[in-house]
Amino acid sequence: MPKTVLITDDTAFMRMTLKNVIQKNGYIVVGEAADGEEAVAKYLELRPDLVTMDITMPKMDGITAIKEIMRHDPNARIIVCSAMGQKPMVIEALNAGAKDFLVKPFDADRVIEALRKAAP
Amino acid sequence: MERLDFLRELGNIGIGHATTALSEMLQGKLLRLVVPDARILPFEEAAAYIGGLDEIVAGIFMQISGDVTGHMAFILPIESARTLVELLTQRHGTDEEIFDELGRSALEEIGNIMITSYLNALSALTDLVMSPSIPALAIDMAGAVWESVLAGALVDEAVTIIRTDFSADGVDIGGNIVLLPDEEEFQKIEHALGLEDF
Questions:
Q1: A47-51, B39-43, B103-107: least confidently modelled range
Q2: B131–A14: do the CB atoms touch at under 8 Å?
Q3: Which domain holds residue B162?
Q4: How far apart are alpha carbons B193 and B92 in whole angstroms?
Q5: What's the CATH code of the domain at B37?
Q6: CA nearest to A104, candidates B184, B16, B117
Q7: What whole-number distance in Å separates Cα of residue A114 and Cα of residue B188?
Q8: Chain A residues within 8 A of B101 when measuring between CB atoms
Q9: Would you say the pTM of this structure is higher than 0.90?
Q10: Three-state SS sequence of B31-58
Q11: Closest approach of chain B CAs to the CA of A83, in angstroms?
């Protein structure tokens, strides 16, 4: 069974880029969210195997969304994909429950490697 | 080290990283050509340096919060913006077609990556956190874009501009990173780096 993925990013272009990379590698993108609130709602609705999470977003940021999702499902597998790669932010995301942290823009291989590691 | 030397060096590190990354996004089509040039200029001269108040430009701006506060922008001539969006989205067409929702979001992402890469480099050197806000985009005459950039900025009278030139598919692309730390905030950076005695 191919693994399912929920993509979270506030820019349409980044969602499209991620979707292309992820689908080309045998995953199914079941949903897209443009902010943290939408990510939490869609996670609960779709229960994907994996989530990609941006940090800087309107309404609810990625760190808060990770905490919310982990509160509902401690087994959620979330990978951060953010341009903001400063150490305290990486640590905060990992402490909140993220499995990996990719700094944008990332190459396709790194994205797939992170997805495989998070959900073997 | 002079402040400008430092900013230029930081430009090398931050923009080097950003352009490498952008090249990856463009499947190797983007090549950095020119070493970034940093200047501190009064507002009027800054606008002229970037290309004149009547020129159409694309400006992406972000507010910075955290240990150091201020504003940053990435401003590029409309032709450069167009080339980058065409390369990224693999589409051609009129300005209206190119700068649709997808094109605009590609531009926002380019600005986001350029600005945040610079901040990441600065943060790694100083151990200060600088978090950018969601990017805002304006495509307009440079004068109007400058007004948007400066509207929220608490600056004295000068702006710092780091110019960076690329070439992609044989087309020259120019971009300018504009740094507007709030008054006094530069001192925090200099303090963290031990530059005050120079």
A1: B39-43
A2: no
A3: 3-192
A4: 46
A5: 3.40.1550.10
A6: B117
A7: 36
A8: 12
A9: no
A10: EECCCCEEEEEEHHHHHHHHCCCCCEEE
A11: 6
